[in-house]
Write a structure and sequence with these properties.
The chain is mostly helical. It contains 21 helices and no strands.
Length: about 425
């Protein structure tokens, strides 16, 4: 008990001091191995290496590289033109185009924050010029930017799959339904909120030209998910295909990327992986140790004795994760909590894939909740607005996302129907 309390106290203090996650996990692992591992702290390296020695982890740098390649080119402007052409006759058409552009860009690059910056740079001034309220424009861009977290290929879903040994291919497929639901909710709100705004009618030559420019970008998620769903290749293999396809489209077809851009893409991705993998290694080492010491099993027994219904567990788990999302980024939360919560969810009767999607959708809201909301902080700089103004702007979208979270949590068919 003293050891567990010491680890929890040390972790909370370090998080309160805003220490790097690597420091928090390193201290927690060191204390765990010191208290219960006979002082064999050097085993952290061995267990961490055993955890990293998995082929599936190759998908993380590959997807990050593919996203960096596609973000470097002119994909954002091509997707915006297509979204505007398709949504022209719909009330609130420009708002719909904003949501669809973020969703499509996120599906290509896998990054919500990049989608917010790339799409926002074009659409924010366009929305204001067209007469849309500043508060709606800010909220729509911040909220739609989070779609990259659940739209496959999603790095959080990959991290969950790695930490819980759940099929990443199945997680990708299960994320499609919730992603479409979230996109639909935001689009419906955009229509109701901006009923009097219209871009005009469909102009088929413009639609055809937009499709011609954007089709190669849109094919990327189709190829990735189609290949995984058909069983033609695995999630790891699809990541490599995404890299090759991204370079081919940007260099050969779009001709938007030069040699110096290629160097910058590799450099930025390498720098990002240099900060991610040490954290991942430490988290995996701690996960191996906790599993060996049967900590998840003890947690399952303790909670099962106190919660005797699946709805009660889902409500408690969602409330806990919503609170966690306010203070911890999604990657850190998944690395620390998924190995502990997933066995409890499975013991309560939840499907492991369904729980992973619920966890990611829940923590996705953390990008819009103070004090740590990443999209709020990014939007402050990108759009030169105050923290309070952006917080007020995202409130209606947070309500929509909460409704979507309840739907995803209590209606597992939405996530699992493509797997049945």
């Amino acid at each position: 008990m003293i050891g567990a309390l010491s680890i929890a106290a040390a972790a909370l203090v370090l998080l309160g001091l805003r220490q790097n996650l690597l420091v928090v996990l390193g201290v927690a692992a060191g204390l765990a191995y010191g208290f219960w591992g006979d002082g064999q702290i050097q085993n952290i390296i061995n267990d961490g290496w055993d955890g990293l020695n998995r082929d599936v982890l190759l998908s993380i740098p590959m997807y990050l590289l593919a996203g960096a390649v596609m973000a470097r080119g002119a994909i954002a402007s091509r997707l915006i033109r297509l979204a505007r052409a398709l949504s022209a006759p719909i009330p609130g058409g420009l708002a719909i185009a904003t949501v669809l552009s973020c969703a499509m860009f996120a599906a290509v690059t896998g990054s919500g924050t990049v989608a917010l910056l790339a799409i926002g740079a074009v659409m924010y001034p366009a929305l204001l010029e067209a007469g849309y309220s500043k508060r709606f424009a800010l909220g729509a861009l911040c909220a739609a930017g989070t779609l990259g977290i659940v739209v496959p290929p999603s790095i959080p879903l990959i991290l969950y799959g790695v930490m819980t040994q759940t099929s990443i291919s199945e997680l990708f497929i299960a994320g499609i339904g919730p992603a479409l639901l979230l996109t639909g909710f935001m689009s419906a709100y955009a229509i109701v909120r901006n009923w009097r705004f219209r871009l005009g009618g469909w102009h088929f030559p413009d639609i055809a030209a937009a499709f011609k420019e954007g089709i190669w970008s849109l094919l990327m998620p189709v190829i990735i998910l189609g290949g995984i769903y058909s069983g033609f290749f695995t999630a790891t293999e699809s990541a490599s295909i995404a890299v090759v396809y991204g370079f081919f489209v940007e260099i050969v077809i779009h001709r938007e990327m030069r040699f110096k851009d290629v160097i910058e893409v590799f450099t930025s991705t390498t720098r990002l992986m240099g900060s991610l993998f040490p954290v991942l290694m430490m988290a995996l080492a701690l996960n191996v140790f906790l599993t060996y010491e049967q900590v998840p099993d003890m947690a399952v027994e303790w909670l099962t004795a106190r919660i005797d219904s699946l709805p009660g567990f889902i409500l408690l788990m969602n409330a806990f994760l919503l609170l966690v999302g306010c203070f911890m980024d999604i990657g850190s939360a998944i690395l620390i909590l998924s190995p502990l919560l997933q066995p409890i969810a499975v013991a309560q009767g939840m499907d492991a894939v369904h729980f992973g999607v619920v966890m990611v959708v829940n923590l996705e809201m953390g990008y819009l909740t103070p004090p740590m909301g990443l999209n709020i902080i990014v939007a402050m700089t990108a759009f030169n607005e105050s923290f309070g103004e952006i917080c007020r702007a995202v409130l209606p979208f947070l309500a929509l996302m909460l409704i979507a979270l309840v739907t995803v949590s209590f209606w597992p068919v939405l996530s699992l129907f493509l797997l049945q």
